[in-house]
Amino acid sequence: TFKDKLNSVDSHHLLDCFAFTNTGELASFYNNVRQLTGNFGPYQIANPGETVITAPQAALPTTAVDGVTGSSPYIFNCSVRSLYGLCGIFADGDQDTTGFKSMVVAQFTGVSLQKNLACWEYYNSGTWTPFPTGSNYQDLIDRDPNDVRMRPDRVSAHVRATNDAVIQEVSVFAIGHGVHHWAQNGAELTVTNSNSNFGGVAALADGFKQQSSLNDKDWNVNFLRVAADLSEGRSSVRAIPLGEITGSTSSSVTVAVDLTPGFYDASTPLILEQEGYTLRQDSYIWAANPAGKDYRTKLPASAYSSGNPDQINLSSAFVTEDGDAPGSGINFPALTGLGLYIRRLTDGRTTDERR
User: What is the DSSP string of 224-276?
Assistant: First the structure.
């Protein structure tokens, strides 16, 4: 079991329990051994192949790599218990090692929280902002979970592979890390019988391989599949009635029956919320004209409130698309008594046609 440094209150987000040993680190280790043993004993220099992970890696399979002489580092029955972001595994293929850069891990449970607020930030007025000096862990807990995140340069990870490294995971359980299973820059993870609880991201892949595989060549594009366009006749416009108009000004209109506020959003009438619609700013609201073209106007940012349930606010007075005002002629009656409604496009495409 790996734990934080005793009595530490600082982040361990750059510290991993397991990683490849590179040639420089191994040389330093043997130098320390020589100093302790007075240059006596068998452990004086690194043995050939000690930084070869598994086997030599060739472009094509050969007898040098098809065998069982070498093996991946095998991490088995380990755990992490950390309050400050201690990471689990970091396999970096760019380390000064050679061979097939792989690891195998089974039954490695990581419980790694992060109580150092220097590693967190919160969303404020359009930007991600560090927590002020003097903030405590409760300040983080009290904020909306959707408005906080680990700083991208201080995010912790349980199993992370990068630069073409390969990790095979079995029964790996990650709890609380910023990223639980992370593959970067062409690295590969196979994950079996594992899970993620809490934390930031369960599985993340970013970047790409620098070179394509040998069999990834000599291919041609036969076709590109795109979604069917909404204008191809499979869609229709749906009218959702809001009530009969009983009065109006250039900035508002009232209806005969109060509109019930939405259950989740009191700024949206329930009749629209149930259908997944809103009174979106700058969308049109309409009044049915039985003698000609319907009247319309745009909605402001705050179109409805539960304090005035029979009223809809307007950005401007109703007119037809040609500019004709209510009450201006025989084909343009006044608004009182007309039906108020909004229009929304109904997507008639099949699931297959949307892809």
Answer: ---PPPTTSSS-EEEEEEEEEEEEE-SSEEEESSPPPBPSS-TTSBHHHHTTT
Q: In the predicted model, what is the mean pLDDT of residues 282-309?
A: 95
SS3 helix, strand, coil % of the chain, rounded to 5?
10, 35, 55
The tokens for 172 are: 């790996």
**Does 130 score more than 80 pLDDT?**
yes
Candidates 147, 146, 108, 112; CA nearest to 131 is 147
* Amino acid identity for residue 37 in this structure: T
Which of 112, 107, 89 lies closest to 178, judged by CA? Answer: 112
Contact 204, 150 (CB under 8 A): no
Nearest to 245 by CA among 288, 284, 280, 302: 288
pLDDT digits 0-9 by tens, 136-147: 888 888 999 889
Token pair belonging to 277: 């619609």
- If you search the block for the tokens 């218990």, which residue do you land on? 81
**What are the backbone dihedrals phi and psi of residue 99, each rounded to the nearest 5 degrees, phi first?**
95, -170
